[in-house]
Design a protein that fits this description.
This protein is an alpha/beta fold. Among the domains are: 91 residues, Alpha-Beta Complex (Conserved hypothetical protein from pyrococcus furiosus pfu- 392566-001, ParB domain), CATH 3.90.1530; 65 residues, no CATH class; 34 residues; 73 residues, no CATH class. Helix content is 52%, strand content 9%. It has 21 helices and 12 strands. It has a 5-stranded mixed β-sheet. It has a 5-stranded mixed β-sheet with strand order 9-8-11-12-10. The protein has a two-stranded antiparallel sheet with strand order 6-7. The termini are far apart.
Length: 522
């Protein structure tokens, strides 16, 4: 930085414009008023730092003093003029702001973020420049992650730095959850220890307690392996200095997704391969509806605790071990050694007999066939999940009308037909023409129908949908238009007959009204 004018110079206050890059945005009006009184009595003892512009000067440092001078309508102020480029001016503002004794940690956080976003600074550069540790910089930067509600509480000193740092390392969706549970019995904010306890119990999870493999990067591909995740406390000890125990995951949604995916994979493996493993459930808790439906399709019974099996606690010394996999309950997703009850043992007698082997083979083949059906359901599920994120489905004009759209349109209309009419028109239109080809054959025939063929289907669907005695106006008008298009329905005659009835009714009403008026005593 090079001084190009006198070290001190007086310039007109009106020639100085404020900077739009000053990191400081909050000013205490009362303290500025007190400073203005001091300047009025003693003068401005510390000059403003400015840099020359095309017209006048731009303030670099000293906005609080500038505001105080304006309050007392000072005409001239002492300044130090330096020829600074944008980068140097920003650096001077940042350093001055950080040297204030009353600077709020959130303002420090914003300043550090500004240095990284607008300047050519790294965390190491900032640490060296202000003589602080990199850990200090990282923790301050994390405060930028606080949502608006928590920032407001922090600025009002309703929470201290310790609590703010605990909240800041959470995703904003979890910050909102903590806020809803943060009040203590007196209406204030719980202690840092209480907040941490709530977070540990309801939001974070010990990675060592995971039933899935944290190193598996393919379990949930979008998440990758836990070892590479920044939301793991062990990934950045500077942000989680108080987490003394093993690694914690700070994203319960991701942790839950991995847990459920692992359980799904294990159940799939048991169904396909592990004949010595039974699916087991708690007697007092229902299992997931989708899983229940799937197992029902595959004719797989889930053993019920106490009724069908007992858990073996401690070491299992048996030669022929039987294991169970919990599909619900407290040990959801875990393997345990089990002992079958007598009822189940009777069912399992003589497993090597021809009758038993034939039954097992039939069950395996049946399951294999049903698993193929379930594979198709999984593909369909992935298709609809992908479709809901595409612009072709959500943005107007992104996708043009095509054969696929027409196919969907025709199927919607066909499915809207009542069952008796499907039977009736299905025969008339030869909808079983390609019956041997299954569903593909039905859709093929549907697309072969002419517009006149489709007209009978559409008209019947419209009639059944809008024939209510109390239709909406648009439905009534649409149905009337359809009736008019038939050319065989005497709509005008209906209207004339109804008008004649209405005219008589109106005439009678007028007579009654006139009679009542004449009956009034004058």
């Amino acid at each position: 930085m090079e001084t190009i004018f006198e070290h001190l110079k007086e310039v007109a206050l009106v020639d100085i414009t404020t900077s739009n890059t000053n990191p400081r945005s909050d000013f205490d009006e009362q303290s500025i008023q007190e400073l203005a009184e001091s300047i009025k009595e003693h003068g401005l003892l510390q000059p403003l730092l400015v840099r020359p512009k095309d017209k006048g000067y731009e303030l670099v440092c000293g906005e609080r003093r500038l505001r105080a001078c304006k309050l007392i309508d000072l005409k001239l102020v002492p300044v130090q003029i330096k020829d600074l480029n944008d980068q140097e001016a920003l650096e001077a503002q940042i350093i001055e702001n950080l040297e204030r004794e009353d600077v709020h940690p959130l303002r420090e956080a914003e300043t550090f973020r500004l240095m990284i976003d607008k300047g050519e600074y790294t965390i190491e550069d900032i640490a060296a420049k202000i003589a602080k540790s990199e850990k200090f910089i990282l923790q301050r930067l994390s405060l930028n992650n606080l949502n608006a509600e928590w920032k407001k509480l922090f600025f009002r000193n309703d929470i201290n730095l310790s609590k703010a740092l605990i909240i800041a390392r959470l995703d904003k969706k979890y910050q909102k959850e903590v806020a809803q549970n943060a009040s203590d019995w007196s209406g204030g904010i719980k202690s840092a220890q209480q907040l941490q306890s709530y977070i540990d119990s309801n939001i974070t999870a010990l990675i060592s307690k995971a039933i899935f493999n944290p190193l598996d990067e393919n379990l949930v591909k979008k998440a990758g392996a836990c070892i590479n995740c920044p939301k793991r406390s062990g990934a950045n000890c500077s942000l989680f200095p108080d987490v003394k125990e093993e690694d914690r995951c700070f994203d319960k949604v991701c942790f839950g997704e991995k847990t459920e995916k692992h359980i799904e994979n294990e159940i799939e493996s048991i169904i396909n391969n592990a004949e010595n493993v039974h699916l087991i459930k708690s007697k007092h808790q229902a299992i997931d509806e989708d899983l229940s439906e799937k197992l029902k399709k595959l004719d797989i019974n889930v053993l019920v605790e106490y009724d069908d099996f007992e858990t073996i606690h401690g070491k299992d010394e048996r030669k022929n071990k039987i294991r169970g996999f919990w599909v619900n309950g407290y040990d959801h997703g875990k393997y345990v050694s089990i002992r079958l009850t007598k009822k189940q043992e009777v069912k399992a007698l003589d497993p090597k007999s021809k009758e038993s082997v034939d039954a097992q083979i039939e069950k395996i083949n049946t399951r294999a066939k049903r698993m193929l059906e379930l594979d198709g359901e999984k593909v369909h599920k992935r298709i609809i999940e992908a479709m809901c994120e595409t612009e072709e489905l959500t943005v107007l004009g992104k996708h043009k009308y095509c054969d696929a759209t027409e196919k969907v349109n025709r199927l919607i209309v066909w499915n809207a037909l009542s069952w008796p009419k499907k039977e009736h028109y299905g025969k008339l239109l030869d909808m079983d023409k390609y019956k041997k080809e299954g569903t593909a054959g039905f859709l093929k025939r549907l697309m072969e129908l002419t517009k006149d063929d489709m007209a009978i289907i559409i008209n019947n669907v419209g009639y059944d949908s809008f024939k209510s005695s109390l239709p909406t106006y648009s439905e009534a008008m649409a149905l009337r238009s359809l009736a008019e298009s038939f050319g065989s329905i005497p709509i005008e005659d209906f209207e004339k007959e109804q008008k004649a009835i209405a005219d008589k009714r109106i005439s009678r009403r007028k007579e009654r009204v006139t009679k009542l008026k004449n009956s009034v005593k004058s």
